[in-house]
Amino acid sequence: MQATHSRPRQPTLPIDCRVVSNPSFTRPAAPMIAPSILSADFARLADEAAAVAGSEWLHVDVMDAHFVPNLTLGLPVVQSLLKATDIPLDCHLMIDDPGRWAPPYAEAGAHNVTFHAEAADDPVAVARDIRAAGAKAGLSVKPNTPIEPYLEILREFDTLLVMSVEPGFGGQSFIPHVLDKARTVRRLVDAGELRLLVEIDGGINADTIEQAAEAGVDCFVAGSAVYSAADPGAAVRALRAQAAAARAH
């Protein structure tokens, strides 16, 4: 399943990645779990959010049927979710024209608004608009998009979201080669050259979370692994414990 954009657009601003933003950034002491409501029961979203109340973030996939071949919820549902839960919303915009559509999610109260590098002509401008609207800014890259062309602009972001499946649908199998991107960015963060979270999305479950944690990932988006469990809250705690143990090795 391929999205309509096959090649990433290159960054337009020559920014030295040694000049970092987020001076107060510190790596979270414990791994973060972000349950994906793409795998939840859309007729019971408030209840599904309550079921994972101990999560660090709640991941919300927004798809426009153009950038990816699927259509999901949009801004009105996000606004309703914000009234129904205290969990910070991590909005992942798999959409065309993020410069137009991303800032309203920040204005609505989303904690983190992530858009795709492949969809933006000027990722830095979009990130600055998101931050100006009051949210953290995230950049996402698809599995076959190299991270190297974007390293120089990552200082403008609070999160890098590495896709470990092709974006568009939940329940896909994990693509392990994407962990090289996480390792690359983890080294830069640990060296003090970047200050941002490394997040991963796609195929995260009990069989894959440890290798992602060992690669340096901070935040793990988990859909089916959480919402297919009899007790979603317990599933979140178990995944967090697995990631913490792997990180400690």
TrEMBL record:
Residues annotated for a divalent metal cation binding in this entry: H59, D61, H92, D201
GO molecular function: D-ribulose-phosphate 3-epimerase activity; metal ion binding
Catalytic activity field: D-ribulose 5-phosphate = D-xylulose 5-phosphate
Cofactor note: Binds 1 divalent metal cation per subunit.
Gene Ontology cellular component terms for the protein in this record: cytoplasm
Binding site for substrate: S36, H92, G168, F169, G170, G171, D201, G202, G203, G223, S224
InterPro entries, A to Z: Aldolase_TIM, Ribul_P_3_epim, Ribul_P_3_epim-like, RibuloseP-bd_barrel
Catalytic residues (positions): D61 (proton acceptor), D201 (proton donor)
Keywords, comma-separated and alphabetical: Carbohydrate metabolism, Cobalt, Isomerase, Manganese, Metal-binding, Zinc
Tree of life domain: Bacteria
Protein's GO biological process: pentose catabolic process; pentose-phosphate shunt
E.C. number(s) listed in UniProt: 5.1.3.1
Pathway: Carbohydrate degradation
Cofactors demanded by this protein: Mn(2+); Fe(2+); a divalent metal cation; Co(2+)
Main function: Catalyzes the reversible epimerization of D-ribulose 5-phosphate to D-xylulose 5-phosphate.
Family annotation (HAMAP family): RPE (MF_02227)
Family in the record: Belongs to the ribulose-phosphate 3-epimerase family.
Name of this chain's protein: Ribulose-phosphate 3-epimerase
Species this chain originates from: Nocardia arthritidis
